[in-house]
Amino acid sequence: MPQQILTVSTRGAGLYEFTDEAAAFVAHGAAREGLLTLFVRHTSCSLTIQENADPDVKRDLQAFFNRLVPPADDASMAWLHHTIEGPDDMPAHIKAALTQVSLSVPVISGRLALGTWQGIYLFEHRNRPHRREIVMHLSA
Q1: pLDDT tens-place string over residues 36-54
Q2: Which of 113, 125, 107 is nearest to 40 (CA)?
């Protein structure tokens, strides 16, 4: 089973950890040493590895990106053309362009080589709930 699609259901903008699901995929794979590649199949969300101990980190990241790229109905975003899908859509595309849609995590002894406080997250940039697909690929 070198590949699997993981579906993450979101409740709106925020960071959704899926480290356990990725670790389980690796544990059931044949590769003891290798590389886990993660790829999200959407243009208005992204992937990130971040601290998973203090929930303030998630709140602060969300607040930072909201200040960096406000909604399209904010006066500072009047230059946007793509607004037909709502005030959060084009800002979500910008946030995804500033972050990553793909991650690589080394696998050592059949386990993810993450640091003590690192977790793998889907970073949802849209305000409404979505079902996001993440392709997980394990190579030896």
Answers
A1: 999 999 999 999 999 999 9
A2: 125
pTM: 0.95
Residue 35 contacts residue 104 (beta carbons within 8 Å): yes
Report residue 69 as tokens. Answer: 């790229």
| Percentage with pLDDT > 90 across the chain | 96
**Quick one: which of 83, 88, 102 has its CA closest to 38?**
102
Q: How many structural domains is the chain composed of?
A: 1
CATH number at residue 108: 2.60.120.460
Angle CA(123)–CA(102)–CA(133) in degrees, nearest 5? 60
The whole domain housing 53 covers 3-139
* Nearest Cα to Cα of residue 26 among 56, 6, 47: 6
